[in-house]
Amino acid sequence: MSLIRICVLAFAVLLLGGCEGMFDRRASLETAAADTPAAPVQDYRLGTGDVISIRVYGGDEDIRLERVRLGDSGMLVLPFGEFKAGNQTPRELETAITSNIRGRLLKNPRVSVTIDEYRPFFVDGQVGRPGAYPYQPGLTVRKALTIAGGLRERASLKKIFVLREGQKTMRPVNVNLNAPVGPGDTIFVEESFF
User: Fold this and answer.
1) Which domains does the chain have, with CATH numbers?
2) Which of 95, 90, 84 is CA-nearest to residue 44?
3) What percentage of the chain exceeds 90 in pLDDT?
């Protein structure tokens, strides 16, 4: 066998070995994703930065409060009272407003709270476009990383961490690609050295 053929074969083996590494990376991506099923969408809890609209029906005229941004205090000061909105679901806020105005302002009020804009989640580390992105219900780490431009070549699938908003201990949790992401959460992808 000639020296050129040996070199070509050696190069082909090295090339295929590199491709195998790529396939191993894809397989480990799929394996990591299959480890944990996606979390069901739970009732969204309002927090600082959320933008909501409130409509009150049941009187001569409807009351409409459009695009109200929730501040740091978590309290909403409305023409008909002050309400705790932080860490409440939209349904809980509707119930609180309804209870407050029933009989006092309206006989049989109907209240609707809708979320116009969710507060962001954050992605940092070995991703294409680190930054803040609007939250979407049902968001997983996989979807969040895709929104942030995907993983860089040196990203580690085993070193993806999430720092949960409102978590008592400020320690990031090691997660897989199907872990749920909440509003205000921060995802960090570390670099792989091998």
Assistant:
1) 3-41+119-191 (3.10.560.10), 51-117 (3.30.1950)
2) 90
3) 60
